[in-house]
């Protein structure tokens, strides 16, 4: 069973496998796809709702989430240089950690994009509803009420219609959707420049010190707190966990491995350009919004039109409305595109159902997968409200990003030139000697290249680091409670020691020096910081989100153990002929002389 769950894709085979998709996307197309997927819900809707829990410090929330996303993007960039295949982090983990972990990553990416796209559809529906005076919500809540605690108050059939319509656009072909995407992304960026400039013109720094109890403002239950950080740094971190959703679209660029013209070079560059544009824009938007109007009186459905209306700038309100609609439309296209490519890749590997891998000969797109995604995602948008969807998206994304960061660590410290089974046997025999154990953990022999010992040590330290990070994050949340504070402080000190010890051991181990078109700098520090921030943000999410997450994972395990494990394409390849190479045992060079 362990051999089955840990079987890996050969790393070098990823370069030579044929693809039914068409390579037509350049740097502008890739960057536009990333920006469209990133600057949508977060910039026009999330800023207002996050300001309710972080105050004017929402700018810090976006900055923290943006920093964590940038670190993850760098890890994605190196994998794109190694594995130019459709499927993003799913394929990356397949060649590094094995099939079962890859399925978990792919299933979580499906969660990210399905729920994220549903969230955009619901947000677009809410935005239009707010502009027409709540006519849509009033009609559906009156005639189709849903009195179920964990569902929305009414079914959003308009959101379903929006969702399925855009899935048809994406199914029509990558060139059509790319052209559509670039046009609306340009309108979106132009609108955001106008928003930031107009917001700066109406800036009032006293809005960063007001509280709900001040004269002229109604109390909304936020406790009457004022100042730049009315809810402290815990509010900022909670806001960062929620607004991390705003950056989740950047990895859509990494799903284009089989449709980018030069994926090894263009995908890493497009990822960095996307995150740079996104971070700068989110900071400008968060600062402008809270300077224009107090945080506690922000609209959670359409914050900018509301703020511009309150500051007597109705003309800008409609400019913002136009840009917001374009942004949400392009964001939806980007999310549907990414989801269909991940599902296509998993189905092509036999881990999801076979019909989902079919590529239409005319459109050269996975037509069945795209239309099915549109229907299923539309159903999700119909029955859940936006806040529930945002939290679910964040936890799925953070899980995938954390595993990608760990994959970079494991791949950099992977032993070359010896099979994994042989390496583990030799390592176990060697580490059984106590005197050798200390020398191996601190590399006292000063090995210059990875060995079977150092590779196993890094794997153990990554597991120990993960447990310590979870404990530290939980202790931070417990410090604010007087009852749990003594235990939380003790746990914080203990887990901090565990984090430092594991990092020091990893730093001492030798790394692979393989030359790539792009490599993550400052390894192991950068991937370690990335994974720590992702774990911290995950712990900050509420309990209900974790319950929904475990239900989603349980459904995924049923699919994998009931179908995927028996239909795996990698398993069938091994049954037909044993692999001649793998990432731990690359093929030897040879020459032939002809007389």
Q: Nearest-angstrom radius of gyration?
A: 25 Å
Number of helices: 22
Arithmetic mean of pLDDT: 80
The SSE string, one letter per element, is HHHHHHHHHHHHHHHHHHHHHH
Helix percent band: 55-70%
Structural class: mainly alpha
Note the main sheet. Answer: none
Low-confidence runs? 13-17, 218-224, 417-427, 579-595
Q: Estimate the strand proportion.
A: under 5%
Strands, count:
0
Shape: globular
For the termini, the CA-CA separation is: 50 Å
What does this structure look like?
This protein has about 600 residues and is mostly helical. Helices cover about 65% and strands about 0% of the residues. The protein is built from 22 helices and no strands. It starts with a helix and ends in a 19-residue tail after the last helix. Residues about 15, about 220-225, about 415-425 and about 580-595 have low confidence and may be disordered.
How does the SSE layout of this entry go?
Blueprint (H helix, E strand, L loop, with lengths): L1 H4 L21 H12 L2 H14 L3 H25 L6 H8 L2 H33 L3 H9 L13 H15 L2 H28 L30 H12 L19 H30 L10 H8 L3 H35 L18 H17 L2 H27 L7 H12 L2 H8 L10 H28 L5 H24 L16 H15 L3 H25 L1 H8 L19
Helix pairs in contact: 2-9, 2-11, 2-13, 3-10, 3-11, 4-10, 4-11, 4-15, 4-20, 5-6, 5-15, 6-8, 6-13, 6-14, 6-15, 6-21, 8-13, 8-14, 9-11, 9-13, 12-13, 13-14, 15-20, 15-21, 18-19, 18-20
Kindly summarize this structure in a few lines.
This protein is an all-alpha fold.
């Amino acid at each position: 069973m362990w051999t089955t769950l840990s079987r890996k894709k050969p790393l070098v085979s990823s370069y030579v496998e044929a693809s039914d998709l068409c390579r037509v996307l350049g740097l502008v197309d890739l960057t536009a796809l990333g920006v469209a997927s990133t600057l949508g819900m977060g910039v026009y809707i999330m800023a207002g709702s996050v300001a309710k829990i972080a105050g004017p410090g929402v700018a810090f929330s976006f900055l923290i989430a943006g920093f964590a996303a940038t670190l993850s993007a760098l890890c994605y960039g190196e994998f794109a240089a190694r594995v130019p295949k459709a499927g993003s982090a799913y394929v990356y983990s397949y060649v590094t950690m094995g099939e079962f972990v890859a399925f978990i990553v792919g299933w979580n990416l499906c969660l990210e994009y399905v729920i994220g796209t549903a969230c955009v559809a619901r947000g677009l529906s809410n935005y239009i509803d707010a502009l027409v005076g709540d006519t849509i919500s009033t009609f559906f809540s009156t005639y189709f009420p849903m009195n179920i605690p964990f569902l929305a108050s009414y079914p959003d059939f308009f959101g379903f219609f929006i969702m399925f319509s855009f899935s048809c656009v994406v199914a029509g072909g990558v060139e059509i959707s790319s052209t559509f995407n670039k046009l609306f992304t340009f309108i979106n960026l132009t609108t955001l420049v106008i928003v930031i400039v107009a917001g700066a013109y109406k800036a009032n720094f006293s809005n960063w010190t007001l509280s709900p109890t001040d004269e002229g403002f109604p109390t909304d239950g936020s406790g009457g707190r004022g100042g730049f950080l009315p809810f402290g740094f815990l509010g900022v971190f909670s806001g960062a966990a929620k607004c991390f959703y705003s950056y989740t679209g950047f990895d859509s660029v990494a799903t284009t491995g089989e449709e980018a013209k030069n994926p090894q070079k263009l995908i890493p560059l497009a990822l960095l350009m996307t995150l740079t544009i996104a971070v700068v824009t989110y900071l400008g938007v968060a600062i402008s919004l809270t300077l224009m109007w107090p945080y506690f009186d922000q609209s959670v459905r359409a914050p900018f039109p509301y703020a511009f209306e309150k500051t007597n700038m109705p003309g800008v309100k409609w400019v913002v409305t136009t840009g917001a609609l374009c942004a949400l439309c392009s964001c939806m296209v980007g999310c549907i595109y990414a989801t269909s490519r991940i599902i296509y890749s998993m189905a092509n590997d036999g881990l999801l159902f076979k019909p989902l891998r079919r590529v239409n000969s005319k459109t050269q797109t996975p037509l069945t997968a795209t239309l099915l995604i549109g229907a299923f995602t539309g159903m999700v948008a119909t029955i859940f409200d936006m806040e529930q969807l945002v939290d679910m998206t964040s936890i799925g994304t953070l899980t995938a990003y954390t595993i990608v960061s760990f994959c970079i660590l494991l791949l950099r410290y992977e032993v070359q030139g010896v099979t994994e089974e042989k390496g583990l046997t030799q390592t176990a025999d060697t580490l059984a000697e106590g005197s050798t154990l200390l020398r191996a953990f601190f590399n006292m022999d000063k090995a210059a290249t990875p060995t079977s010992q150092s590779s196993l040590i890094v794997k153990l330290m990554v597991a120990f680091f993960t447990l310590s990070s979870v404990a530290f994050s939980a202790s931070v949340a417990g410090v604010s409670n007087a009852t749990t504070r003594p235990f939380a402080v003790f746990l914080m000190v203990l887990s901090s020691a565990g984090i430092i010890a594991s990092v020091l051991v990893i730093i001492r181990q030798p790394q692979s020096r393989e030359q790539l078109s792009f490599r993550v700098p400052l390894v192991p520090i950068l991937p370690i910081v990335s994974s720590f921030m992702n774990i911290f943000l995950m712990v900050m999410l509420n309990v209900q989100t974790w319950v929904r997450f475990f239900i989603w994972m349980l459904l995924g395990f049923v699919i994998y153990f009931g179908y995927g494990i028996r239909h795996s394409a990698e398993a069938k390849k091994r049954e037909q002929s044993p692999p001649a190479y793998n990432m731990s045992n690359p093929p030897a060079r040879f020459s032939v002389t002809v007389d």
